[in-house]
Structures are given as C-alpha cells and as structure tokens.
Design a protein that fits this description.
This protein has 3 domains: 275 residues, Thrombin, subunit H; 94 residues, Pdz3 Domain; 94 residues, Pdz3 Domain. The chain has 13 helices and 30 strands. The longest helix has 14 residues. The protein starts with 5 loop residues before the first strand and ends with a strand. The N terminus is likely disordered.
Length: 485
Amino acid sequence: MKKNKIFLYLLFFAIIGCKGQDSKNDTLKKVAGITFEEKQKKDISKIIPEQQLTIQNGNFNFRIAAKKATPGVVHIKSTYSANEYFGYYHDDFWYRFFSQGDTSKPQSDASGVIVSSDGYIVTNEHVVVNAESIEVILHNQKSYKAKVIGIDPETDLALLKIQESNLSFIEFGNSDEVEVGDWVLAVGNPFNLTSTVTAGIVSAKARNINILREKGAVESYIQTDAAINPGNSGGALVDYNGKLIGVNSAIATPTGAYAGYSFAIPINIVKKIIDDLLISGKVKRGYLGIVLKELTDTESKHLNTDITVGVYIDSLIKGGAAIQADLQLKDIIIAIDGHPIKTSAQFQEIMVQHHPNEKIMLTIIRKGKEKRIPVVLNEYEGTAPNPIVAKTEFMEKLGIRLEQLSEKEKKRMKLSGLKVVEVAKGIIYNNTNIKKGFIITKVNGRTVNTEDEFIKAFENNKGIITIEGGYPNFTGIFFYTFGID
C-alpha cells in the first residue's frame, strides 16, 4: 500500500473490505416506532445535568465531560475463525507471523458506545463484521455476549445488544452545531488500555477520506487531533459537556498508529442509521438519483459561473427523483433545506439522514439564476443504477468540448446545432478529422441542439457512430464516422 494511505484502525486484523454480516438469524425482537433519542429522553434520570467546563485557577479541564462519557464506553472483543481473520491476505504467511504458533482463534479489541439504558451499543461495522462471537465489557468490568442487531457497511456502523438494563449511556449531541476549533474528547480502548480519554479540537468537518469500499459509501467525517489509536474504533467523540457528537472510526497514518489526525462519523448520521436498524432491521435511504462533481476554477469557467466552491449535477439517473423534479445537468446545488452545500461530503452527510418519500428543498443555480426546487426522494436499493449520462467523464473520453449556438450564429450560418470549441486527445481526435469550429447537427441521424441531446444520442448506439454537420463559410455537409465501445 502507498505511504500516507488512510488506514482503518483494525487494518492489521484484516477486516477491511469484508462483506456485511447477515443479521437475519437474530432472534431479538425489533422495537417498533421508537427512536434512540426518544429512548434517551425516557431515561433522562441517567443523564448528568449539563454543565460547562470546569475552571480552576483560570484554566479549564475536562473532568465533567470525562465523568459523563467514560461509563458509556465499552470494550469490545471480537473473535474470528482463522480463515476470516487472515483471508484478506490469501496467504498463510500472515497467519504464521501474527499467531506465532498460537492455535487459539484470532481476536480483536475495539470500543463501542452505549446509546440506551437497555443495552443497545453502537460501534463500527469493521469491528464486528464476520465475527464468530462478540464480547462486551462494561466500565465496571462486567462481561456480556452481544448480538448483532444490524450493520451498515456504507457508513461503517453496527448496532449491538446485550441483555442488561439500567445502564449508563451517553446523551446525543448535535453534530451540525459542531464547529472547527471546538474542544472534543475521544474515549475508547486503544492498545487494549481500557477507558482512555484524550482531548483535542475539531480540525475539519465533512471530510471525505475515501476509505470505505462499499458502493454508495457515505463519508463525511469530523476530523480531530484528539489522539486515537487501534482499539479506539467504535468509541465516543464527545463535546466539552460530555455529549456524543461522533463515533470514532479511522486515523490518517503512515505507520498504523496515531500521527496527528483522526476521523469520527457525525452523530446525526449515526442516529438515523441505528434508528433504522432498531426499527426495521435495515437502513432505508432517500435517493435523489444524481452524480455530483465538485467545482474547480476550470469547471466554473465551463459552466459560465463565478461560483468556484460547490457541487453541480454531472449525471442523472433514469427514473430518479431528480429527473422527476426537473433537475438538469449543470445545475449547481448550493443548499438542501437551507443547509449550505460546498462539498460532496456535505451533500452526502445531509442526504443520508433522509428517508424514502421525504420531501427536501434544493436551492440551485441554473444559468445564473437561483431556483428552489422541491424533490420527493426515491428509495436507494443498495446498488446505484447506471446513469443516463456520466457527462464529464464521457466528454473527456470523446475529447471535445461543445457550446450551443447563439441565435445570431444560427441566423448567420443558417445552421442549428452545437459548436466544437475544443478538440483534445480522445476518441474523436484519434479517429476523425473534426476541427475546432465544426457545427454538429446530427448524431446517427438524430438532431442535436444541446449537449444533453448530444450525449443521449449515444445511448444504445454502441459500435459505429456517425456525426453530421458543417463548417462556417463552407458549403456542403460533412460526415465523420468512428467506432465506440
């Protein structure tokens, strides 16, 4: 692997990339219609009253936050078969290296957070996936066997249950209110050292580190410099009042140990995922049906906009909610329900909190004008369908850039179509003699007046493609034919 790659805490336990654990055999009864937030409010007596940072001699400390959070963090021991544990490497060398002759079953150590007094615990999916057995050890050293209620590989979250009541839990905070520079505590069990507390600040929000391998993965982490190491996975990230604002999940490191940056899943994502797992046993996601691309200075120029930070629609999915709401390619999304959107990670963080059939309000910029468009979300089925177009990627593959003709140009040239304003290396450059300035009027006999129509003309037309058109100040029609896979 490359240096400076982002590693999951349990990289050396070979859990990266494992498929989801099937919870259909779980015999625990699902609780219908009640969320974890409602469960916490019912048990308000378990929550220590909110207080500010302890201040002594002009300096503050984190005693109150640590006192509130530590009892709600558990130690998780997952036991695996040797095949599951080392199967990632496809080689028994690693088994011999790590086991050093030990014939006992491999085991990993991590953390979890109690989210209700009746024994529900949230942790990372990579902490428990494919484990043969899971042991939960409380702050008071009592030990329990845990059941997996459900997992969500796309957010790296899992919900566990132990048979106990009257437990201390950590009250939910609001990750949307967290800001860069806020003090935070990380509580977990690094290197098998139980109940370890470290402090730091939020150094970034909505950070996408491209660590999750699942299709449809959602990454919008809270980045912090609170020291986190292997064993902290699934532990708590709390604010200075001891409220849960995230579940620790990953570190950025060239060595496998803490090297300055850690990443936590925001609690507002966590709440939605574990509520779904509790109530229905699976996660139900609202689905917009678009592929986004982040703006750059170059993209902004192509889109003729002064906006240089944000996201725009690069692809649309057939039958998706976006098409039904009349969203269009090149629409720049600047807000969802009033929440500003500047990155794809921010977009994901908000979207993952919505259910199918919910209505959201998108604020977009289209051709320089701001519009508000209501959209009723579809249900995400777990595998994204092929988009109608993957605009940028497709046009880069062809190697051309197009512009619509103005009304003056149409009248002057007596042509209607698209003007080629740039020819770069690609399929068209390699296989035709099309020059800059060529006016494309038809693709495979189909009239095209917009870039959308041009791209759609390629649908279901694999093999031979014929582009028809003309050049300004030249009479006659030109045909260019080439093959495409």
